[in-house]
Amino acid sequence: MLEYGCLLDRCLVRREIAPSELPLDQTARIQSYRVVPDTSWLGEFAVLAVVCLLALNSGLYNLFPPMGWVDPGLYIFNFQNLVQNIADYGANYHSTRVPFIFLGWLSYRIFEPALAQQVLVNLCYLIGLGSLLCVARASIPRQSSRLIFVLALALSPTWIRCFVEGYVDGLASAFALLGIAAALSRHLDGSEAVRGLAAGAAAGFAVATHPVPGIFASAAIFMIFLTGAKSWRRLSIAMLGAFCGGLGSLVLLGLVSFWLGGPFLFLLPGAEAGTRMFSAPGSSFALPVSVWLPEAPRAVLVPLTLATVLAAITLRRAISPDRRVDGFLLISCIALGILALAEFHQRGVLQFRFYASYLLMIFVPLCALLIGIGRDASARRDLALAAALALALIPVWRWDAAVRFDLVWALLLGGCLLALIAFVLRRARLGLLAAVSALSLATATDGELARILTVDNPAKPRLQAQFAAKIRSAVIAAGVSDRRIVTWFNRESAERANSSTAVSSYGLYFAGTVYKFSLFDGATASMGWDLTSLGFEMPKLEGAFYRQIAALAKRPAAAVLLCVTEAECREGALRVSLEPSLIVSERLATRIEIPDLPIIHLIIIEMTSRPTAGATPG
Fold first, then answer.
1. Structural domain of residue 487, as residue ranges?
2. What is the mean predicted confidence (pLDDT) over 270-292?
C-alpha cells in the first residue's frame, strides 16, 4: 500500500507501508492516498526575498535608467498615460510589452514617478528571484545548496543589472527561466498536463515581454518534452498542456491590454518592429569586434556559458537519465550557433549588454543541473562557501582605468576554465564559486556596467528622473496638461553644456557615427521623445516640426522648449510664432535648478491651427 507524505525537496513522496502497520478496522484496510502540498518553497522564498531586497536597496546600486538612454524613458512614457498615447500615436513596440507595461502602469499609478521606478525595479527583481528559485528546486535536491546557488546569482551584479535599468530584458528572462524550470522539474513527474500548462504559460508571458527570450523558451520547452517523453501519450498530453497554457496566457494578456486601452492582438505591433529590425543592415549598429571586445569584460558570459554546456554534455547521463536534459542541450547549442553566425555577419548582438544577458537563460539552468549532481556535500563547507561568495561579490567599483585588459581577460578565462574543470569533476561548490567570481570580476572591470550600476557614478541617473519630474510639474503649472505635449531642444547645445560632472551622454553607434544622447534626450523620452519631438536642432525647423503641426487638427498641443540659455529658448519661441499656420501663446517661462545639474531654461507655448479664410466657425 502507498502513502503520500511531504519531504523538503519533493512535492509528493511515496512510502511503502508494511501490512502489519495497517489498522484492523475495515475502513483502514481500503487503500487511500493522503496528498500534502509542499509549502517549503514559501519559507525559502521569504528568506531569499528579505536578504536580496535588502542588498538591492542598500544604496550600493543605482535603480534608475542611465542618463541619455531613451528606451527606458519610452516605457515610462507609456506607464504614465497609455490610453492617450495609443489614441494619439497608435500602438507600437514600446506600448505593447504588456507584462512590463502593466507592472509599470500599476507602479506609476500608485506612487510618484521617482519612487514608482524603484518599486518597478523591485517587483521585476522579485519575479526574477522567484525564477531562480524555481530553477534551483527543479534541479538541486539539497536545500542548503539551493539557497547558496540562488543567493550567489541573485546578488551577482550581472543579474542585478538586468533589472535596475528599467528595461524589459530582466523580466523577459525571468519568465523564460520559469518556463524552462517547469519543463525540467522532477517534482511534476507524472503530471504532464500540469507541467505543460505551467511551462506554456510562462513561455507566453516571456514572448509578450520580449520575443527573443520567449522564442528561446518555447523552443527549449518543446525539445525538453520531445526528448524526455516516455510515451506518445505523455508527450501528447504535455504538448497539449503547453499549447493551452501559452494560448491562455496570451489571451489573458490580450484582455489586460484591451483594458489598458491597447489592442487585444498586442503582439502585432511588436512583430512589425521585429521585422524591421531583422531586415535592417546589422553593420549599421555593429562596431568591429576588435574595437569593443577588449574593454568589454561583460562578454565573459560567452565562454562561461560554453563551459557549462561542455560540462553538461560530458555529464548528461548523470544529470538526467530520462534524456530530458538532452533537448535543452540541443536547443542551447543551436542558439549559440545562431549567435556565432550573427556575430560573423556583424549583427552586433553581443556588444549590447542587454542582448548578451540572454545567455543567462542557458547558463542558469545548466549551472543548477551541474550543482544538483555535485558530490561535495557538507553543511560546514556550504557555510564556508557562502562566506567566500559574499567576499567575491563585493564589487571592485573603483577599478583603475589604466588596467591592462589582457590581464583582466586572462583572469576571466582562467575562471571559466576552472569552472569547467570543477563541474566535470562534480565539484559543485568550486564550480559555482569560479563562475560567480568571474561574473563579478567582469562587472567590476567593465566601465559601462560599473557606471550603470553604482550610485557613485558621477553622472547620477536619479537626477534625470528629478529633471523629468520638474518638467511635468511645469506643464501642470502652465495649465496645459490636457494638451498633447511636444518637446524641442538643440542636442548639440545640450552636449556642449555638459561641463557639470553630473551630466553625461549615452553614445549610440550607427552607420559610422556615434550619436550622443544627453540629459535632454533621457528626460524627454518619458514624454515620447521622437514621437513628440519638434526636432533636435532648435531653432531649425525640420520635418518633425511639420508632422507635429499637421497633427494639431486632431488635438491641440503645447510645446516644451528646453535650453541651456534663455536667449536660445526665446529664439525658438519666436521661430514658432512666425509660422503663418499657427496661433502661438506663451504660457510659462521659468528655469529648472537641481543641485549638480546646470541651470536649464524652459518655455512652454501653446499652439493651435490658424483658421483658414472662409472656414465656418465651429
1. 462-609
2. 63
User: How many residues belong to the chain?
Assistant: 618
The C-alpha atoms of residue 159 and residue 117 are separated, in whole angstroms, by 18
Indicate the pairing of strand 557-563 with strand 506-510: unpaired
Could you tell me if 442 and 327 lie in one domain? yes
The model's pTM: 0.86
* pLDDT tens-digit map of 392-405: 545 444 444 445 67
Q: What is the mean pLDDT of residues 47-54?
A: 94
Residues 128 and 150: their CA atoms lie apart, in Å, by 10
What is the structure's pLDDT at 187?
A: 66
Do the strands 557-563 and 484-488 form a parallel or antiparallel pair, or are they unpaired? parallel
Q: Which residue has the cell 561548490?
A: 429
Q: Which residue(s) pair with 537 in the sheet?
A: 490
Phi-psi region of 529 (alpha: psi -120 to 50; beta: other; left: phi over 0): left
Asked if residue 270 lies in contact with residue 327, where contact means CB atoms within 8 angstroms, the answer is no
Scored b (16 or more CB within 10 A) or e, 457-473 reads bebbbbbbbbbbbbbbe
Domain presence at residue 437: yes
Q: Which three cell numbers stand for residue 25?
A: 478496522
The number of domains in the chain is 3
Residue 198 forms part of a structural domain:
yes
Residues 301 and 430 in one domain: yes
CB 587, CB 606: distance < 8 Å: yes
Report the Cα–Cα distance between both ends of the chain, in Å, rounded: 85
Cα separation of 422 and 569, whole Å? 63
27 plus 4 within the same structural domain: yes
> 367 and 476 share a domain?
no
Residue 149 grid cell: 546557488
Per-residue pLDDT of 147-169, as tens digits, reads: 989 998 999 888 998 999 889 99
76 belongs to a structural domain: no
Residue 381 in 3-state DSSP? helix
pLDDT category, 453, cuts 50, 70, 90? Answer: confident
Q: Assign 513 to helix, strand or coil.
A: strand
